[in-house]
Amino acid sequence: MSWRLIEKYRDILKQERGAICKEHTGKIRVAIIYPNTYYVGMSNLGFQAIYYHLNQRDDVVCERGFLPDEGDIEEFKRTNTSLFSLESQKRLKDFDIVAFSVSFENDYINILKILDLAGIRYKKEERGKNEPLIIMGGVCAFFNPEPLTSFIDLIVVGEGEDVINEIIDRFKDERSEGAGKKEILEKIARIEGCYIPELYDVEYNDDRTFKRIIPKGEASPIIKKRWVKDVDKYIPCTRIFTKNTEFADMLLIEVSRGCGRACRFCLEGYAYRPLRYRKAEGILKLVRGEKGVKERIGLVGAAVSDYPYIDDVCLNIAGNISVSSLRADSVSETLIKKLLESGHKTIALAPEAGSERLRRVIKKDITEGDILNAAGLILSSGIPNLKLYFMIGLPTEADEDVAAIIDLAKKVREILLETGRKRGRLGRLTLSISSFVPKPHTPFQWCRMEDAASLSRKLRFLKKSIAKTDNVFLTTDLPKWAYIQGILSRGDRRVGDIIEWAYKMDGNWMRAIREAGVDADFYALRERPLDESLPWDHIDVGVKRGLLIKEYKEAIANS
Ligand code: SF4
Predict the structure, then answer these.
(1) Whose CA is nearest to atom 6 of ligand 1?
(2) 353 CB under 6 A from ligand 1?
(3) Under DSSP, is residue 221 helix (H, G, I), strand (E, B) or coil?
(4) In whole angstroms, what separates CA 337 from the centre of its chain?
(5) Tens of pLDDT along 449-506?
(6) pLDDT at 368
(7) Bridge partners, residue 113, by sequence
(8) Which of 109, 409, 466, 489 has the fewest CB atoms inside 10 Å of its own CB, making it the most exposed?
(9) All structural domains of the chain
(10) pLDDT means over runs of 10, the chain (559 residues)
């Protein structure tokens, strides 16, 4: 046992406000885990919401766990210290339930790392009956959890607020009757939204494509996503404040779920359906009730500028507000003014594609006029800098579309220079470029990803094109990480072998792919026929396949 690590965790806890520490005796012990570091996890609202929600029950104690910081992992191993929770520094393996909240595919490997550090066997079939029940929730659980099915006992498909209580109730009842893990899982399987991978077999075709999933016994052939009908009943917001996270000491509040725009590449517009907005009164009541943090409020939602009560909220919040990015066609002057008063120096817009044609293909229904108008409104308000988000590798993209990013950037730059000269100080324009990764349950779920070499070529072109342009800067992701994400995002159960090897190979994914003997291009780079069965077909997020096909065909017809 390492005292240095225990002291470190206690110190982190001392710097927080809002942590809940409870007695363990007689309660169901749940460790909720964010599969990344404390710094990353503590800005995740879903993670904080379930922690708070579970701790509202008298019969549950819920504590947090994280991936240790890089330097601490060695210390855990060297001192043979089993990974422990933050609140009580109790070993994760002594909890009844270890629940992962997973938002990003690139964190999958960390699930194995955390289980191993905790002394819990990461392969589901090797785990003993006395080891904790391993649960997974979060957005990755409801778009395609298949690559993780070798490691997880129970996958919660959808929004967790209602279903987590049903799971705990069932767990408690069954355990008090003396049921073992297997029996408990069989009972939990009857709750809508609960997917027990063990209760399903999978078949593949001779050409390696996925054939079908076969439920065993009474398991439901379709897992329906759970979603919260009354979003005003639960308003996810920061419950624990700390300086040691990205959105430090900021009150984050979720104002909406889903997005009504349905851009064809985006999970928000499909997997999170239906679109739900929270009433302004609830948001304002929460802000007013939070003592001492009113100064910084982060409004969270898929397209915050679409939130119908945004002006109302802006006009009635005394403190500063923040938002992630704005839709170019729904930028209100009230919102801009509030962001300016809040001290923002940069506002982000997301055109996603440079050309009008490609924006039509992806259904990002904003025109060049909308973008230039929004840029003018923002920059002439006094906010000096602008950030524009783009993707490359989108379906049907040609070199002209990539060149159009530069053309558009130059037009925006003109506005930036003009407004800057009037102000007497020039701002900066940042182009943030990421690579398109097709996502399940969207109309682009059948599309191929562009390979890393081609994406890198496009990035080089963009870099070269703006290299000598003053006041314009470029940030890019690494196509190799987008490729890994592409494999994990649309993988089936066989991709679990790549994740396991990646863990064993210390994050060397390319070597892991070779060792696993799995053809990774088959998952990421292959266009899938519309009649091919997909590994996530048994997950019903509430969007009909027919609608996705119609949208896909319309996209191609637009090209
Ligand atoms: S890209 Fe933005 S506007 Fe489009 S569906 Fe997603 S969240 Fe909504």
Answers:
(1) 266
(2) no
(3) coil
(4) 29
(5) 999 999 999 999 999 999 989 999 999 999 999 999 999 999 999 999 999 999 999 9
(6) 97
(7) none
(8) 466
(9) 3-224 (3.40.50.280), 345-557 (3.30.750.200)
(10) 94 96 97 98 96 98 97 96 98 98 97 98 95 97 96 97 97 96 96 98 98 96 96 94 92 95 96 96 88 76 93 91 91 93 95 97 96 96 97 97 98 97 95 98 98 97 94 96 97 98 97 97 97 97 97 90
Residues 319, 298 contacting (CB under 8 angstroms) = no
Residue with tokens 């979003």: 231
Establish whether residue 267 lines the binding site of ligand 1, counting it when its CB lies within 6 angstroms of any ligand atom.
no
Let me know if 411 is exposed, middle or buried by CB neighbors in 10 A (0-12, 13-18, 19+).
Answer: middle
| Distance from chain centroid for Cα 314 | 26
Residues 297 and 247: their CA atoms lie apart, in Å, by 10
* pLDDT tens figures, 276-335: 999 999 999 998 876 655 578 999 999 899 999 999 999 998 889 999 889 999 889 999
Spatial contact of 372 and 412, defined as CB atoms under 8 Å apart: yes
- What's the confidence (pLDDT) of residue 294? 54
The per-residue pLDDT for 290 is 66
Q: Which atom of ligand 1 is nearest to the CA of 269?
A: 5
Residues 6+ apart with CB under 8 A from 208: 519, 522
Q: Which of 254, 256, 263, 365 to mutate to test the pocket of ligand 1 (most atoms within 8 A of CB)?
A: 263
Helix axes 181-188, 160-176, angle to 10 degrees: 140
Compute, in angstroms, the gap from residue 262 CA to the centroid of ligand 1.
6
Q: What does the DSSP 8-state code read for residue 348?
A: E
Confirm if 250 and 293 have CB atoms less than 8 A apart: yes
Q: Which residue's C-alpha comes closest to atom 2 of ligand 1?
A: 303
In this prediction, residue 325 carries a pLDDT of 86
The answer to whether the CB of 300 is under 6 A from ligand 1 is no
The Cβ of residue 320 has, within 10 Å, a number of other Cβ atoms equal to 17
Q: What are phi and psi of 523, to 5 degrees?
A: -90, -40
Q: Which residues make Cβ contacts (< 8 Å) with residue 167, sequence separation at least 6?
A: 135, 154, 156, 188, 191, 194
Tabulate helix, strand, coil % of the chain (nearest 5). Answer: 40, 15, 45
Residue 349 CB less than 6 A away from ligand 1: no
149, 247, 425, 448, 450 from 198: Cα distances, Å = 8, 38, 62, 30, 34
Ligand 1 centroid to Cα of residue 364, in Å, is 8
The structure tokens listed for 194 are 């609960």
Cβ 263 under 6 angstroms from ligand 1 = yes
**Nearest in space to 47 (alpha carbons), one of 60, 24, 67, 65:** 65
Confirm if 124 and 151 have CB atoms less than 8 A apart. Answer: yes
Binding site membership of 262 for ligand 1 (Cβ less than 6 Å): yes
For 383, left (φ over 0), alpha (ψ -120 to 50), or beta? beta
The mean pLDDT of the chain is 96
